[in-house]
Amino acid sequence: MSDSLLYIVSTPIGNLGDMTPRAIEVLRQVDVIAAEDTRHSKRLMNHFGIDTPLVPCHDHNERHQAGMIVQRMKAGETVALISDAGTPLISDPGFYLVRLVRDAGFRVVPIPGACAFVAALSVSGLPTDRFYFEGFLPAKGAGRRKRIEALAVFSSTWGVYESPHRIMELLDDLGAVLGGDRYIALAREITKTFETVMAGTVAEIQVALQSDVNQQRGEFVVLVEGYKEPEHAEISPEIEKMLQRLLQDLPIKKAAAIVADLTGLRKKDLYDLGLGMKNGE
Ligand code: SAM
């Protein structure tokens, strides 16, 4: 393995104060920086006094550029990858490059920093013990709703990135598929002047955004609370009697299954009740 390295360098998602000292140091030291949009990144480099050459590496040329970067690394050069904002590869180019560089036997080193999804999750008030990142949903129509339908049953928190201008459509789709009562959090313009984090039901957030168009502008992370099983339905005295009668002739499991079939109640709840009856509770 050669000594050449590929650094994956996170850059700010709005506030330049989030650029880490290590990111600046690495970007100054490498031989070349692969950037999603070189004109955009040039401004960042100028701000931090970094004059390392930039080469483009974006969705449309990544495969070609990855081959070129591996060649440069074989020649002993050290390379950094940055994207327009935040952590490269997170809904940004870089996966193909990292795979190729690793397969070629080089080390890939993270220089961690801002990531809009993680920042949003950390302030959302939604459970964080398990979560799922969807990235961007299909831009519109049936494809988008279909994907939301698949996510609707996830029991963990999940979240998406949304481009500016489409936030109201996304809320409409969330309301239509998940219902207006599902709890969500909206993180807008994180680390920027108009940073706002709102949490509430889909219906509440829709009203809040409708009543203030300024809240519809900017970059968004939308987080959705996971699906929760509905509260246990009450077992009525009539159903209790039905279960009691069946228990005279059947084992608890069988009796509970029949009553569950007939009533739509949970088999487990009926089993527990049947067990209590058998034990004379
Ligand atoms: N790689 C980036 C990261 O680490 O977060 C994400 C890049 S992705 C192309 C851009 C999307 O990230 C935006 O459309 C928005 O959904 C989200 N995003 C980026 N910056 C944001 C910010 N400051 N506030 C809220 N969302 C942001």
Helical coverage, percent range: 40-55%
CATH topology type of the largest domain: Cobalt-precorrin-4 Transmethylase, domain 1
Beta fraction: 15-25%
**Bound ligand species:** S-adenosylmethionine
Cα(first) to Cα(last) distance is 71 Å
Number of strands: 10
**For the largest beta sheet, what order do the strands appear in spatially?**
3-2-4-1-5
Oligomeric status = single chain
Overall shape:
elongated
Per DSSP, the total helix count is: 11
Assign the CATH class of the largest domain.
Answer: Alpha Beta
Secondary-structure content class: alpha/beta
Count of domain modules = 3
The chain-level mean pLDDT equals 95
Question: What's the SSE blueprint?
Answer:
Elements: E1 5-9, H1 21-29, E2 32-35, H2 38-47, E3 54-56, H3 62-74, E4 79-82, H4 95-103, E5 107-111, H5 116-124, E6 131-136, H6 141-151, E7 157-162, H7 167-178, E8 183-188, E9 196-201, H8 202-210, E10 220-224, H9 237-247, H10 252-263, H11 267-278
Parallel strand pairs: 1-4, 1-5, 2-3, 2-4, 6-7
Antiparallel strand pairs: 7-10, 8-9, 8-10
Helix pairs in contact: 3-4, 6-7, 7-8, 9-10, 9-11, 10-11
The protein binds S-adenosylmethionine.
